[in-house]
Amino acid sequence: MEKINKEKFGGEGKKKERHALSPAPNIEEGLAEYMWITEDTPQSPMAPMRCVDIQYRNIESDGPSTLGRMSCYAVGGLSGGESKDDFWRTVNICTDLLPKHKPRYLMGVGFAADLVVCVALGIDMFDCVFPTCTGRFGCALVMSGQLNLKQKKYSLDMRPIDVECECSTCKTYTRFYLHHIVTVEPVVACSLLTVHNISCQLRLKRQMRSAIEKNEFPKFVQEFMIKHFGNDPIPKWITEAMAAVNIQLLEDKDLMNENDLTLRN
Ligand SMILES: [Zn+2]
């Protein structure tokens, strides 16, 4: 087995060097190594590829039977500053390698577009501080992105955050009220926005699950991306990621008729 060069991954420290130079003797230690290595990956631009390398190494050393013994799988070390191109390609490699009939969980990913892309690539579960963290900054998630309720334009806005949202915050409070308390009662505002933000993400996941069950997921992705990015172009990395799983996104949204969301494939 090829030894992993410490310098290649820019690692420092005795513990990291020891792990980097020796293959995991068993699955338990292999997982411990994997989890430890992902703890400090945000500082490393090579973090995603390092994690993938660990996955490959465990597969090579323990064989497919190791993967088959696990009840679910976590992919970590991403969303730490790597390029979006590295991000989706790494997720795609991992989901190609991991058993498709068992849950695959992606750690620390919470942006709506990222959730949709990663579900398309084969991820089943997520967790992330994003919906609660962004609520602390006075931001409310919506399908088109987020609203910064600190902005003055919401000072007379009597609508809820999202008219389609069923959460208690949207049913009870206006953007006007939330704009007011976000500065004078930040703890209350944080709680209200957290309720909404988590509800918003749960709704997105329910919509994706429903689209998958109806065998309409490609159409859902197309519609979501148009709604999410509005008049902005869909980023190239998303177009390429979706093409990798045979979901063709229209490059020119001017060609898209809202009443005809037929995909090109
Ligand atoms: Zn809501």
UniProtKB/TrEMBL annotation:
InterPro entries: TGT-like_sf (IPR036511), tRNA_ribo_trans-like (IPR002616). One of its GO terms (cellular component) is cytosol. Residues 70-228 form the tRNA-guanine(15) transglycosylase-like domain. GO terms for biological process: tRNA modification. Keywords: Zinc. The lineage of its organism: Eukaryota, Metazoa, Ecdysozoa, Arthropoda, Hexapoda. Residues 1-15 have a biased composition (Basic and acidic residues). Residues 1-22 are annotated as: Disordered. It comes from Glossina pallidipes. This is tRNA-guanine(15) transglycosylase-like domain-containing protein. Pfam families: TGT.
